[in-house]
Amino acid sequence: LTGGPSVSPALCAVGGAFLHNEVDLQVEPPSVRVERLQTATVTCCYKSARAGLSARWEGLAPGAGNRTASRQRNVTLDDRVTRAEGRKGNWTCVTLTIRQATEDDTQLYRCSLRDNTSSTPLLSPGTYLKIYNTSEKLINLSERTKNHLIVLQAVILMLCVLLPGTALLCKAKQQSEKSLDFKKKRREEEENIYEGLNLDECSMYHDISRSKVHGPYEDVANLRGSDIQLEKP
Q: Sorted alphabetically, which keywords does the UniProt record give (predicted)?
């Protein structure tokens, strides 16, 4: 193979020497992933000045053995699997279209080129087609229902944030009110500590106390002029 966009002959199956020298293969995507029951397309483009070339598709399923020309099997064309050929500039492109693709269509697809004078075809590197199956929905919900669920989740989240915070604020307020009531009650008790005492009894008590304290003593100034006998030592 020659040319900038062509693929090295080492990547292709062994073909006729003239095909190697006269055919350029465009680089293909190494793999394609398609969802199950969707349409899959694989394209092979080549360029050659030699007339009379024919292209067909061959497939190699996983685990089919060595990937050689003798192991390839032709792709059966029907209403579901179709082949189309067209021109893109100087390139001739052959497209394989698989509608309603299933897991059985998972394999390596290669383009086989040959003419009337060649017994051995020239095979492209190929494109591996992978059919995957998406997980089925357990509950089929409409967009409106999904939006309602999102709003409900937001409300629940807001309540989960507000309710504990409100409870803590109420508890702190109650504790503050209890502390203020305790301080107020204590202040009132200190102010009314003498509220139950009788003033008359208080005056008598003070008189008795004063008489007991000052009774044994006499005023020396009032005793002037009177006879004072002092005890001799």
A: Immunoglobulin domain, Membrane, Transmembrane, Transmembrane helix
